[in-house]
Amino acid sequence: MTNTNVQYGDYLQLENILNAQFPESDKHQLPAHDEMLFIIIHQAYELWFKQLLYEVDSVAEIMSKPAVNDNSPELQTVVHRLSRMVTILKLLVHQIDVMETMTPMDFLDFRDMLRPASGFQSWQFKALEARLGLQYKQRFGQEYYISQLKQDKIDIIRKAENEKSILTLLNEWLERMPFFEEPGNWTNYKAVTPVEAGPEHIFWQDYRQLYSGGLAEAEKDNREYFNTVFADANAGGERNLSPKACRAALFIMLYRGYPLLQLPFQVLNSLLEIDEQLSTWRYRHMSMVHRMIGSRIGTGGSTGKDYLKGALDKHFIFAEIARLTSFLIERRKLPVLSHEMGQRLGFQ
Amino acid sequence: MTNTNVQYGDYLQLENILNAQFPESDKHQLPAHDEMLFIIIHQAYELWFKQLLYEVDSVAEIMSKPAVNDNSPELQTVVHRLSRMVTILKLLVHQIDVMETMTPMDFLDFRDMLRPASGFQSWQFKALEARLGLQYKQRFGQEYYISQLKQDKIDIIRKAENEKSILTLLNEWLERMPFFEEPGNWTNYKAVTPVEAGPEHIFWQDYRQLYSGGLAEAEKDNREYFNTVFADANAGGERNLSPKACRAALFIMLYRGYPLLQLPFQVLNSLLEIDEQLSTWRYRHMSMVHRMIGSRIGTGGSTGKDYLKGALDKHFIFAEIARLTSFLIERRKLPVLSHEMGQRLGFQ
Amino acid sequence: MTNTNVQYGDYLQLENILNAQFPESDKHQLPAHDEMLFIIIHQAYELWFKQLLYEVDSVAEIMSKPAVNDNSPELQTVVHRLSRMVTILKLLVHQIDVMETMTPMDFLDFRDMLRPASGFQSWQFKALEARLGLQYKQRFGQEYYISQLKQDKIDIIRKAENEKSILTLLNEWLERMPFFEEPGNWTNYKAVTPVEAGPEHIFWQDYRQLYSGGLAEAEKDNREYFNTVFADANAGGERNLSPKACRAALFIMLYRGYPLLQLPFQVLNSLLEIDEQLSTWRYRHMSMVHRMIGSRIGTGGSTGKDYLKGALDKHFIFAEIARLTSFLIERRKLPVLSHEMGQRLGFQ
Amino acid sequence: MTNTNVQYGDYLQLENILNAQFPESDKHQLPAHDEMLFIIIHQAYELWFKQLLYEVDSVAEIMSKPAVNDNSPELQTVVHRLSRMVTILKLLVHQIDVMETMTPMDFLDFRDMLRPASGFQSWQFKALEARLGLQYKQRFGQEYYISQLKQDKIDIIRKAENEKSILTLLNEWLERMPFFEEPGNWTNYKAVTPVEAGPEHIFWQDYRQLYSGGLAEAEKDNREYFNTVFADANAGGERNLSPKACRAALFIMLYRGYPLLQLPFQVLNSLLEIDEQLSTWRYRHMSMVHRMIGSRIGTGGSTGKDYLKGALDKHFIFAEIARLTSFLIERRKLPVLSHEMGQRLGFQ
């Protein structure tokens, strides 16, 4: 490596970064001290959203490869980058503490000057939700959020929605898991045998009986979900994960101790943590907005906190994985895997 | 001070504290490693609940004194202890990260052995909610939560409900605020003049006109709330804060810059932060429970997360203060206080 | 307010912010995934440094006013903005968790391409230290850090060093505190009576006797410091705070319960918290650098962690305030203030 | 599982836990409000120390098994529990925020009543350091800390020091890593061939040449360390990790992408994080003590912060692993492993 001559300020483009704050209250000759905080915290959020999109794209790229479902270095990289996303999301939650050092009265000094700008115009955040797997039709208040965006930004989100999301890639990856394949077919990924026959069928049949107790104490809609998971692949058109994929995920959770299932388990776990941090962020965000503007109309022209509340309940992207925890049974009651299966899931 | 001879272990009663963990899974000869974490984290929570109750009692005692509404050292102590409560609640939220290092499968190893024990039997937490101002009739799922508790614990909560809560004391303290009294009456706390007459009436009449814009863009139920705040004291039997008290709180928010209003503003702000941290704790707690047991029945015999979800929406104790932020107007549009009023709110 | 037409992206200058990341590893056709994180986290740090400088400048401006040492709204604003700085610094400490998701091997992929750029070239951070009160002559490794900077950046720091720092303004503000003035002179700020005579002299004489015990158990250099604090103003040329100012600070700590001393106490407390968070940030930063590059030479051309270690011990800006805690005595042993003094420190 | 009848309060032994707070200031009829916080926060710390000891013991037990160095479920459990320890340590750092809500004046109200009790009498924390691998001879201020403890507590720590520590077990585990063994010997753990001969010798010889550049820019004592790592096992009697073990650790860091090295890398990483969190805790603890008592003598009879400062520099338990990061080279320059070696580190 020939010695380069990089300077800190040039490298970080600080001329652009540090001269990009133009408070509206100055333009109106009504300077409001806290508007600088308001601008800088949103710019920091957008920088982190860019980083999150960068990580999610790299994860999607790796998961698109056919060979990822053996424990290749790539899968370790997927886990590493997903857990980095979790770490970043925790920081974004913490960042709300800084925003809350602005009191409602301090915000009032300039909030009317920002209309109709609003955090709901953050196309990066919506693109992030889309890349993870949130579809337009699943969004709360679709018309509203479209109405907030200009066409070029809508196009960016649309594009993100049209790419293969992490959720879609997760489904394909889980369906490829050849736990119940013949050893000979271990490495090639032909369509798997239908659930109606072969070892998988038998395994899950046993499992359903073992689980019957847990099923009894579950809620009704949960029992229905349980059945679709063990029914054939055609059920539940509204679902993002096929029964086959759900069974693979459940199998990973149940037998995560086996070497070959350790990283896959970490993948599932990281995705649930991402969902949880996203929802924590929405919740703290909602509380903060409520505290800041009470029941007023937000600068975006509608009550932001209603949107946030709706999103809170509807935007769980990996909910189908989360629900599988209802179907776990005690380790000591688990079916013991055959020696051959054990070898398959081990390293030798 | 004669030199005592205190030993660390005796002082902290470590013999009792460190020998109080008896995993059920050991009794059943089915040792589950993670049960120790489960016990210790709950014991840590209960220790902190005791501390929170200790602080809230001391705050209530101070606020019961008639003279507290000048800026006495006591009021500073109230602010200091309320913000300590906020700091502790933030720690309790963080503590959920530790609980989440337990996976659903690890919990399954012993959860059935705990029936019917359940976190909903934490009478200290319920007593804390009650001391702050949550009344029994406002609780979500009253019958359910009673059904979870033994009589002696119910009595503890009842006792807490029957004492004057922080919310009640806040109302009395705010009603005593003699902002619009005659200077001569400054120090004595006789019943204040009715709002229909005198300077207060005039002030708020002006204020309503100034605010009309904000009112226009508020939601319907908010407009109604606005009117009750400025109507006579008899309206809204369901309310915990009288119109008079709400007006005093609003006045404090609007003119917090005045020396005499600085600590009162910090009191209101700390109470809102306590509500926010409590609700964040409930939300993270709910997500954690969901992730841990899915849609199963909790050890307590019912779905804990439904209870938590209900509590989430209903248990905002200082909501009436929070709503007042809807009625703020820009500083630059505020009525300028009379010189006499200014002096009253200053130090000389 | 005429309705403006502000758009989110334009308002936040996202075109500039989100297109300011140019990884060196791309230029070298050796793309390193983690360089994007490296760039974005440093840009986020610089955004927050700008905000901290913005707050510190506004605090300095307020503290430059002669009238600030009665409890005016300005003093409340000072407290509010200093504690906001504490909140931001806690976020910057947390941000290190994100940096630590980059492993040493991942950093190695591009670190050599960054030479000689280095975090030590962050002139904003050095300007922040200077504005708070760190003088050039007190810096660890002066030559080194100068060698890292280009002239225009050195000039920025020099300029910051030449303005009145918070520490200097704190000294002037404390010296103005007229606790022991004649009531008549309450509001004018003439030079105070020398400590050798008058009520202040008598007060501290009593205090020294009461404290004698504490002094006995203090370290030697601490005893010397104690004496200089109560000696005349000419002692200790190396000191940033005059004995007169130190006595005022000590008085505030001892009698903070009095209304007039409540905000001043919060000012002192916030400044100590800023120092503590800055040092925590340096410590975590040092650990992180150590973990990242071991004992290698940093990209800046010298071992960064040695610089950080040196700064860690030397860069406590408000150390002279912190040391005063050694001279406190139990509340119950405090000299009772005269009725007249009590009135002066109260509101009536 | 027959339905048990466990009650929350009995299960958690709340009678013992919640009635174990006896403020000294009450006994002296000089009640100090904040002593309750002081007691409860220390009890919470001791509860968490018990949990940390519980986890470290379970990790030690697993690492004592001969077969742990293939990727068995046990190794995953080791990683899981070590990272749980990191999560708990982060909470303990956060807990200092709560302690800091106590001001020096509030502490003064009761601190003299606690003599000679002191946090340095926490035998659980010292046992934790010992179980991780800190030896008595490496401790800062050995005589001092012994003088603080009663014999029965000293015995507890001695016992912990005499058991095989995580550091010792790490060394044995790393030495067993048969990366350069003949394939046929893969599963048995006979003493490995001396470094002077065979594939390992050749591999590291190549590596030293590749690294020469990095060595040039390292510090002197680091170059010496580098040489000992590649010298025979007899060098450096003061060392806790043998050269053979260090080379294995370095190999794991360099080639962590290989399936078989993924969990071992996570083990090393978690141990470094534990060290880092422990040192962050010591640093924040030291700052807090400094702020609380200034330069006074601590209740333990000596200046606590000096002890903490000394410990800060000396008590890095896994420093020898941390230093290896100095010897990494860019991935693209790494020696490509032979096909046979690759297979060994893969799953087939």
From TrEMBL, chains A, B, C, D:
UniProt: heme binding residues:
H285
Q: Which GO terms describe its biological process?
A: L-tryptophan catabolic process to acetyl-CoA; L-tryptophan catabolic process to kynurenine
Alphabetically sorted, this entry's keywords are: Dioxygenase, Heme, Iron, Metal-binding, Oxidoreductase, Tryptophan catabolism
- Catalytic activity entry: L-tryptophan + O2 = N-formyl-L-kynurenine
Q: One GO molecular function term?
A: heme binding
Q: In which pathway does it act?
A: Amino-acid degradation; L-tryptophan degradation via kynurenine pathway; L-kynurenine from L-tryptophan: step 1/2
Cofactor(s) essential for the protein: heme
- List positions binding substrate: F38, I39, I40, I41, H42, R111, T299
Superkingdom in the source lineage: Bacteria
EC number(s) reported in the record: 1.13.11.11
SUPFAM superfamilies from the entry? Indolic compounds 2,3-dioxygenase-like
Note on how the cofactor is bound: Binds 1 heme group per subunit.
Concerning Gene3D superfamilies, the annotation shows: 1.10.287.3810, 1.20.58.480
- Record HAMAP family: T23O (MF_01972)
Q: What does the record note on quaternary structure?
A: Homotetramer.
| Summary of the function given for this chain in its UniProt record | Heme-dependent dioxygenase that catalyzes the oxidative cleavage of the L-tryptophan (L-Trp) pyrrole ring and converts L-tryptophan to N-formyl-L-kynurenine. Catalyzes the oxidative cleavage of the indole moiety.
Similarity comment: family membership: Belongs to the tryptophan 2,3-dioxygenase family.
Protein name from the UniProt record: Tryptophan 2,3-dioxygenase
The scientific name of the source species is Chitinophaga barathri
